[in-house]
Amino acid sequence: MAYYKRKKIWKLKDHKVTSEIFYNTRRDFLKKIGVGSIFLSSASLISRPAFSSLYPPAVNKSYLINRPLTVESLATTYTNFYEFGSNKNIWRRASKLKTEPWSITIDGLVNNPLVIDVNDLIKKLGGIEERVYRFRCVEAWSMTVPWAGFSLNKILSLVEPKTNAKFLKFETFYNPDIAPGQKQQWYPWPYQEGVTIEEAKNELSFLATGIYGKQLPNQNGAPLRLVLPWKYGFKSIKSIVKISFLSERPIGMWEKLAPKEYGFWANVNPNIPHPRWSQKTEEQLGIEGRIPTIIYNGYEEQVSYLYKGLEKKLQDNLFR
Questions:
Q1: DSSP 8-class letter at 232
Q2: What does the pLDDT look like over 278-287, one tens digit per residue?
Q3: Is the pTM of this model over 0.70?
Q4: What domains are defined for the chain?
């Protein structure tokens, strides 16, 4: 997750950023005439047949926010996915990942362990919805994205965690033949991340299958990724193949590599700087100028209760 000074490819004028109202109007129009696929960006992938009837999903208006949506072509081309390389423009490499079929293993301290195809999982959970969330990267850039998917809490209801399950560990795929970054042995592959079971139960915790009214492109974490909008983006693990319920706290890949920079909690906090740069402001992709970063990325009301009594611990070390 190194931070580099580079020319910002997202530098667009404000008037070129899609507004939320225009986005929803345009999406409804495309749904009515049935030609939304004509407008796919070059970085997006054609929808898998098993999912095509789910898109565009119904919008959950409880999660609309007062920021302009990020231009789709930016959100789907300026991405971190170290499995395919350390630069942002990795969407061509990521297109080689085969995401159909795709099985998810859910195991550990649960009463109903599962190995299930992601298509069947969506059917079992009753479909998907769309939520607009802020997304804040630890590198101090941000975007606003309409995600499609389902609440992570639905997974808990399905598998029934045991009373001693305190954490969830997520794991992404491992295939160095497809993902050249996984040939770099100094990274502890496969990518892993974790949350507490209380965080998993929170209403904002989301498993995404789509973006901008279509299925996720590979570079954005197809076919299933985690979205935790109050945490820095590296916690939102992509292309998940396994979810394990544990009694002890898991250690994520970036925490293993640099525990003083990328700890377990990783809550967005403008008052705690990264060791190499400030977190007080951020640059929205596609919009000139910086804006102040908000505690918990603007979701304090929904998540602050999770960290009562941990304030001193969270202050002592960047994100721990």
A1: B
A2: 999 999 999 9
A3: yes
A4: 14-316 (3.90.420.10)
